[in-house]
């Protein structure tokens, strides 16, 4: 892929340089927190899925509030109707309000980081300011385990590199489908389709010849070069999606007015006066 993309051509430099929002200790805490939630609900996803989900939330055409995305990610999907300035109710999956608040704090830091990274112009994905998805080479990690430990999980289905992240991203696209619908502008619609194809490709299994181990450089090969290239294409596609929806703004909903009474008809407000002498004056 060439280094120049539509996203690079339209992105504006951010006011601040992106800094790592989550330390290794924070990421370990998130893994442990999600593990504890999984004891209460087996449907709680891994952090890699969450990271793809949060990335798509940042890229969605209109802003998605925490009251919308949190229950979709970790609850029953029903919006939390909360007045402005009021705290969110505690989801059942959390053991305490403090645990929920801590998850939201860490998640919001990641959201802010993703937004800064995607709004910063970069020439290469190797740039320090470039967007860096939280993805795993799970197959590579398993291959470096002792043989006895590998045997315990050999019958389990193991996802490909970045597959879980892409599934998290597409979960948002599917559940806010109206906000991801193709725009009327033909060129913009083609841009959207092309970008989405790169991410959808990552949801599929890596069936090409393994050539690399991304977990441990000298470990047994687990991931194909084609998969690594596809991942790079998908990262650039995320830049494109962010810039596409930013350039278009939220979808405008047309307001349909009902039929107004004639000037000599009784006013619809029930006053008993003619429309022209009342609300139509």
From TrEMBL:
Highest taxon of the lineage: Bacteria
Ranges for region Disordered: 1-26
Pfam families: SEC-C (PF02810), UPF0149 (PF03695)
Start-end of Low complexity biased regions: 1-25
Name of the protein this chain belongs to: Zinc chelation protein SecC
Species whose genome carries this gene: Comamonas terrigena
């Amino acid at each position: 892929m060439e280094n120049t993309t539509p996203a690079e051509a339209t992105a504006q430099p951010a006011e601040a340089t992106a800094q790592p929002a989550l330390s290794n200790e924070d990421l370990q805490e998130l893994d442990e927190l999600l593990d504890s939630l999984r004891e209460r609900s087996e449907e709680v996803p891994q952090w890699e899925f969450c990271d793809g989900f949060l990335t798509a939330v940042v890229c969605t055409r209109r802003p998605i509030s925490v009251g919308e995305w949190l229950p979709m990610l970790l609850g029953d999907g029903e919006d939390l109707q909360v007045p402005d300035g009021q705290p969110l109710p505690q989801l059942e999956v959390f053991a305490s309000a403090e645990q929920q608040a801590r998850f939201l704090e860490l998640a919001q830091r990641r959201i802010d980081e993703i937004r800064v990274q995607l709004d910063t112009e970069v020439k290469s994905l190797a740039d320090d300011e470039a967007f860096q998805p939280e993805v795993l080479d799970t197959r590579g990690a398993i291959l470096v385990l002792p043989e006895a430990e590998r045997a315990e999980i050999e019958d389990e289905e193991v996802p490909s590199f970045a597959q879980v992240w892409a599934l998290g991203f597409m979960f948002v696209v599917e559940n806010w489908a109206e906000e991801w619908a193709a725009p009327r502008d033909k060129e913009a619609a083609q841009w959207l389709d092309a970008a989405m194809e790169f991410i959808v490709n990552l949801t599929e299994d890596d069936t090409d010849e393994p050539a690399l181990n991304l977990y441990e450089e000298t470990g047994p090969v687990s991931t194909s070069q084609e998969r690594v290239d596809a991942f790079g294409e998908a990262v650039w596609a995320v830049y494109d999606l962010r810039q596409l929806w930013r350039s278009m703004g939220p979808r405008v909903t047309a307001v349909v007015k009902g039929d107004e009474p004639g000037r000599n008809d009784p006013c619809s407000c029930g006053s008993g006066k003619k429309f022209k002498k009342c609300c139509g004056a």
